Every structure is written in C-alpha cells, then in structure tokens.
Amino acid sequence: MKWTEQQIPRQDGRVAVITGANTGLGFETARRLAERGASVVLAVRDTAKGKQAAARIDGDVSVQELDLTSLESVRAAAAGLRATHPRIDLLINNAGVMYTPKQTTRDGFEMQFGTNHLGHFALTGLLLDLLLPVPDSRVVTVSSTGHRIRAAIHFDDLQWEHSYGRAAAYGQSKLANLMFTYELQRRLAPHGTTIAVAAHPGISNTELTRNTPALVRGPVTLLAPMISQPAAAGALPTLRAATDPSVLGGQYYGPDGLAEGRGHPKLVTSSADSYDVTVQQRLWAVSEDLTGVRFPIGQATAAA
C-alpha cells in the first residue's frame, strides 16, 4: 500500500515544533499536522513571514523566532519554547540551506554545516528534556540524497577554511544530519519513549535550490517537470517519519520512485559511510564542543 497524507493519524493534543516552516517542505509539514489537530509552532528566522504562513494554515499555529545561524538565537528560541510549552511531542529539524557561496554563521561556522547540522544539534539538545517524558515523541531530522555526493565528515577542516566546494559542503552537512540521527537514537533507546528518525524529500520544487550554480540551474530547470515533485509531496517522508505508528527509531524515509527522486514515502537506506559508529560518536563529541550543548542522556555503546 502506498502511504499518503490520508494515513496521518489524528494529532490532537500533540505539540509539533518545525524549523523553517514558513515555506516549502516545512510549511507543507506544518499544514498537514495542524489539519490533523496538532498544535504547531513555526520556528522561523523571519517572524513576519512566519505569521503570514500561519495565517494560511487552519488550526492551532504559533510562531517562534529562530535563527539557526546564531547559537544565541537558538538558545533564546529554546527558552521561549520552554516558557510556552511544558511538553513537545514532535521536533522536526527541517530548515536548511543548500549550495551557498562560501560564508560563515554568526559563530564562525561554515554556513551549511552550521545551519543544517550544528544549529539543529544545539536546538535538539536544549529541548530534548521536554520530549523525553512524552510517549511516542519523536525527533525527525530532514537529510537529503545529497549526503551521498562527495560527502564525508572532514574533521581536519570541518569549516572549509582551507578549500571550499559548495556541493561537498552541503553533502557533509546532510551526512551529519544522518549520523546525528543514528547516534541520537542509540542514546535514546534506553529511555524507551522518544525516538530519532530521518527523512529526505527526494527532488522537490522548493526555494532551497536558489543557490544552485548557474551552469547547473538551466538543465535542472528544464528537467524539473520530469524529475521533481511539489513540496506537498516532498513533505510526505517527513510526515510519515513523524506520525506513522509503525516507524522505529533510527529509520530513514524517502520517496519510492527512481533513485528516490519522487514518489510515495518508504523506508530507505543511507550511504555506507553514514552508518560508521566511530565517526558518528566523534561527530557528536565535536558538535558538543562547538555548540557548548550537552544532551540530558548518556553516551551510547557501539552495540546498542
């Protein structure tokens, strides 16, 4: 059976925090969850755009300012969410940037690694104790098929200070999303309530591609109708990871079509590199050091 939005269970009484939810995949994820009865928080950098997006969604929707390029903003957003929500059922790490020119976050991190991975790592750590007591709570992190493209965790140059390739830097950030999910799940497993799951949208028509190099943008635009899908369809793997009762911690969901580019969400596998436990644990330790955020859960063993 093909999984569709009709299979999203009722979400009454559940609180969902979604980063980057004023547009694209995040907006479609928020809209579907609110329609099913969830109280949805749009965690966005531009609150004016967030309020415009909230006005287009039927249901209980609020806006929280969050700039993932600033650890100060991440901490302020976590404090704001803690003040207004005593519990969180779903934390969906959706926001991201792609193929940006070489630049850094306010804390000096390479923009793609800092936004896509470190910002979400810090936010998750600062909010996790609001999820841990909640049955069937989930942390869903959105990765990409780009985690396979020239991707590795470059511990010798994480911030791309010596050389920079925008595609390789994006691949590193998306590989980090998966490694974070898998290590987080091992650490969550002994607690038995919260799970960590990953998803990817395939090739979706969103604003994320705005920084695609000009030489690539032309052919991609021509091929888009044949290889891509609307944001509403691209959000389905995330929605399945967030709501399907059969989902297990540590799983990864993406489209079922050719090369996982489009289609209905199904369980998929990530690259062999993404399952390297030693690298996952090293990345976790480095991420803690860079962000100054420690999670309220213990270290997992490789066999866990």
UniProtKB/TrEMBL annotation:
Keywords for the protein's UniProt record, in alphabetical order: Oxidoreductase
CDD domains referenced in this protein's UniProt entry, alphabetically: retinol-DH_like_SDR_c_like (cd05327)
NCBIfam families associated with the record: PRK06197.1
Superkingdom, taxonomy of origin: Bacteria
Family classification: Belongs to the short-chain dehydrogenases/reductases (SDR) family.
Keyword Oxidoreductase: yes
InterPro entries per UniProt: NAD(P)-bd_dom_sf, SDR_fam
GO MF terms held by the record: oxidoreductase activity
Protein known as: Short-chain dehydrogenase
